[in-house]
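User: Here's a chain of 149 residues. Predict its fold as tokens.
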Amino acid sequence: MSIKARVYLSPFLLLLISALGCGNGGEDLPDVVPVTGSVTLNGEPLPGASVTFMGEGRPCYGATDDNGTFTIKDMNGREGCPVGKYKVIISKYTKPDGSPLGDSPEEAAQGVEQLPPQYSSMDKSTLTANVPEGGKTFDFSLEDKRKKK
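Assistant: Prediction complete.
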């Protein structure tokens, strides 16, 4: 069964994205380069996770598919992100029992973060990415000793 790309962002990231808006406000947009990659957890693909690149400008984001792969987009929906250094936040919210969240706002509000703070917390993430001219593929291999292998 295929999982559609449902992304459940932390309340902080939702607020940040809302505050930044979707338009460019008349400003010149920086060029973007292709950024793709994959996320594994304990050696297995991690589907249904949000991947956010936080740099000096607006954040860029993506979601992992069934194979744990993602494509990053900027806030205007263009595939890619500007060249630069980024903190990376990878997050996955589920129901408290670990099952996928439904589409209702009530279920989304009850979501529980499944990944450790060193990956999922804006303040504590240790993940970084340096996006070069021409773009890059980033593969993030996450380990969670709380999860059975």
